[in-house]
UniProtKB/TrEMBL annotation:
Superkingdom of origin organism: Bacteria
Entry annotated with the keyword DNA damage: no
Full protein name: MBL fold metallo-hydrolase
Species for this entry: Acrocarpospora macrocephala
GO molecular function annotations of the record: hydrolase activity
Domain Metallo-beta-lactamase: residue ranges: 33-246
Keyword vocabulary terms for this entry: Hydrolase
InterPro entries linked to this entry: Metallo-B-lactamas (IPR001279), RibonucZ/Hydroxyglut_hydro (IPR036866), Sec-metab_biosynth-thioest (IPR050662), WH-like_DNA-bd_sf (IPR036388)
Length: 344
């Protein structure tokens, strides 16, 4: 179907497939918006993702639904791809007023338990990773800012039920398969409509940016390995219309998955080369690599994005250790890496 004129993040509703509407909701950061997908069903709507708990987002959702002839009270169910604020927190607010059901993958239970604890410090796992990767000064600089970005524990209400891996969810006559795609978070799901050739990809496959790896309160042991494995599983599915959480709809899920796999292959090669050239900590390696489409240096990024860069670099280094290309040692709480070639 023809794309709507203008930016993908402009408010409103766009028909992207029969019975499926894309509704971008505003975010207070550089992502600009998150796409919520409204799926028609005989008794109302199912929404894939819900948006962030912001008054403007709620108002934009209400207005977009009204343009389609629906109200917030017609939302019967939210199917949430993962437990990030911009995907999850508006759903429970709508539920309070209208009784909508909220569902999310069962592997997100540890994350929701953590962020729902008022004593859990925001980004504590990522700040610990910074220090373990030799970025003590960056961790100190970003600490207060990172904690300020946390969301109050009371906004992280529990779901009504958990979605299990590969569950088939019926939305009217539509059948969605909830496919586990860990990496961005451990419990991330994509929803695949095989009959209609649609992939509701959440943050797993984004058209213009590479998803952050392991950005969650309780990261997995090897989030990059998980992410790449999940990408390969999605690649084995039939090609589909890519319906991402951020950015415009794209015609081919396969094409973008191939690009992401090539990107991480190149990143692994460049990470290994940086260690072979004498960089020994995650922070040193991240400072050697270019970032974003602008090929920016690490210190040119905002400090929060510097944190994401070092955390992602750590994930690449850990995978290279698993592949027996690097070894790691621990000294005074800092991990250092050396290539196996250098040890021989």
């Amino acid at each position: 179907m023809a794309a709507r004129a203008g930016s993908w993040s402009e408010p409103g509703a766009e028909l992207v497939a029969p019975g499926v509407h894309r509704i971008p909701l505003p975010l207070p950061d550089e992502l600009a918006a998150v796409n919520v997908y409204a799926l028609e069903r005989p008794d109302g709507l199912t929404l894939i993702d819900s948006g962030q708990a912001l008054r403007r987002a709620r108002d934009d959702l209400k207005d977009a639904l009204a343009s389609l002839g629906y109200a917030l009270g017609d939302v019967r169910e939210f199917l949430i791809t993962h437990a990030h604020r911009d995907h999850y927190t508006l759903g429970p607010l709508v539920r309070r007023d209208h009784g909508s059901r909220v569902r999310i993958g069962i592997r997100e239970a540890p994350a929701l338990a953590a962020v729902g604890n008022p004593d859990w410090p925001a980004y504590v796992s990522q700040l610990a990773l910074l220090r373990a990767n030799g970025a003590e000064a960056l961790a100190d600089e970003i600490g207060d800012d990172a904690r300020a970005q946390g969301i109050a524990a009371h906004q992280w209400e529990a779901p009504d039920s958990w979605i299990v891996d590969d569950e088939i969810i019926e939305v009217g006559e539509r059948r969605l398969q909830a496919i586990p795609t860990p990496g961005h978070t451990q419990g991330h799901l994509v929803f695949h409509d095989e009959q209609a050739d649609l992939l509701f990809a959440g943050d797993h496959v984004l058209p213009h940016i590479t998803p952050s790896i392991g950005l969650e309160p309780v990261p997995g042991r090897s989030p990059l390995r998980d992410f790449l494995g999940a990408l390969r599983r999605v690649r084995r599915l039939p090609d589909a219309l890519l319906l991402p959480a951020h950015g415009p709809v794209s015609p081919s899920s396969h094409a973008r998955v191939d690009e992401l796999l090539r990107h991480h292959d190149e990143r692994l090669r460049n990470t290994l080369a940086a260690v072979r050239a004498g960089r020994t900590t995650g922070f040193e390696v991240a400072a050697k690599l270019p970032w974003t489409r602008r090929q920016a240096a690490l210190d040119e990024l905002p400090v929060f994005h510097q944190m994401l860069a070092v955390v992602e670099t750590s994930a690449h280094l850990e995978l290279l250790v698993e592949q027996n290309l690097l070894t790691q040692t621990f000294d005074s709480g800092v991990v250092t890496y050396v290539s196996r070639e250098a040890e021989q």
